[in-house]
Amino acid sequence: MAEETQNEDVEQPKKSKTMLIVIIVVGANLAIIGVVLALTLGGSKSAEAEAAPNPQTAAPVQTGLGPLVKLDSFIVNVASEEGTQYLKASLVIELTGEHVNDLFSKSEMIVRNEVLMYLSSLSVQNTQTVKQKRAIQSRLTKLINKRLEGEIVKGAFFTEFVTQ
């Protein structure tokens, strides 16, 4: 009988150690799975948060095209070897951003004056080719920016350009 008691005492610690090892292994596996899931789900949430930033703190998206302002048509006399001729031009002005829209609106009459003075200084011979028209666009952009004392205008675009 004493032998049976000793055998039971020897078997119980073995069973306890085995059970303890199983519990530790299962617990460790569950912990690893939990960490992997947390990283996976947590990582996708932060990626979603980066993809959809808070609209209150997000910077405006730059599309490359600034606000456009259409000016009324210009009709000016231009010098010609054949006598007086007319140039009719319509412009759309691209601004550098929304922040200069008010300044441009307040200065539109000054801008019209600058455009009229420049266009009337041209001759018909200076307005015939595409290269010359692009040079006129560039010059108008520079003139307007100089007059408004800053980088207000990104570009000037003709929507109509006719000499007669």
Descriptive keywords:
164 residues; alpha+beta; Tetrahydropterin Synthase, Chain A; 2 domains; 4 helices
Structural class assignment: alpha+beta
Specify the CATH architecture of the largest domain: 2-Layer Sandwich
Tell me the count of domains. 2
Strand content: 15-25%
**Which descriptor suits the 3D outline?**
rod-shaped
Low-confidence stretches: 44-61
* CA radius of gyration: 39 Å
Helix share bin = 40-55%
Distance N to C terminus: 129 Å
Question: Your description of this structure?
Answer:
There is one protein chain. The chain is α+β, with helices and mostly antiparallel strands and 164 residues long. It folds into 2 domains: 59 residues; 96 residues, Tetrahydropterin Synthase, Chain A. It is 54% helix and 18% strand. It is built from 4 helices and 4 strands. Strands 1, 2, 3 and 4 form a 4-stranded antiparallel beta sheet that branches. β2 and β3 form a beta hairpin. α3 packs across α4. It is rod-shaped. The termini are far apart. About 11% of the residues have low confidence.
Gist of the model:
This protein has helices at 2-51, 101-106, 108-120, 130-148; strands at 68-70, 74-78, 85-95, 153-163.
Chain-wise SSE layout:
Blueprint: H1 2-51, E1 68-70, E2 74-78, E3 85-95, H2 101-106, H3 108-120, H4 130-148, E4 153-163
Antiparallel strand pairs: 1-3, 2-3, 3-4
